Amino acid sequence: SRIGVLNSHFPSDPMASEKEAALAAVPSDSPTIFDKIISKEIPSKVVYEDDQVLAFRDISPQAPTHILIIPKVKDGLSGVSKAEERHCEILGRLLYTAKVVAKQEGLDDGFRIVINDGPSGCQSVYHIHVHLLGGRQMNWPPG
Ligand code: TR5
């Protein structure tokens, strides 16, 4: 559970080491639902695509515009915390694509970019993705 995950950061939790192991075991190379979205096995509302990245509408939008931008080849990049130097180019391309898509979506007043990482960061799909959110006033701090 979410609370269990949070508790694992307290050394007094007797289950801490077990939970840490479970966290460490999140496999960065395992396929995710996004592989099937990339292959078009599962349909999605694609708003931008090139040879390296895919951008599609989030199935559970948290703002009038909510788009996910992902690399077509994961290459071990399940999240930012797994980034290696070889990923620098694709990491930059994900952000650049967010800008291109924001313009395409008419988000001229601004937008929010989010990358969740790991259980405490509320990541649920372990294939790196940039959330592009816009079309309403964002609040700070985020939840
Ligand atoms: O929680 P994190 O940051 O990992 O973001 C994962 C996002 O993927 C969430 O905002 C989900 O709503 C989104 N998601 C999950 C699925 C999905 C999707 N967006 C589009 N299409 C989807 N399909 C077909 N299936 C999903 N399980």
Automatic annotation (TrEMBL):
Species, as recorded: Quercus rubra
HIT domain location: 33-143
CDD domains, sorted: PKCI_related (cd01276)
Motif Histidine triad motif: chain residues: 127-131
Protein name: HIT domain-containing protein
Coiled coil spans: none
Pfam families: HIT (PF01230)
Catalytic residues identified in the record: 129 (tele-amp-histidine intermediate)
InterPro entries: Histidine_triad_CS, Histidine_triad_HIT, HIT-like, HIT-like_sf
GO molecular-function terms, A-Z: adenylylsulfatase activity
Superkingdom of source: Eukaryota
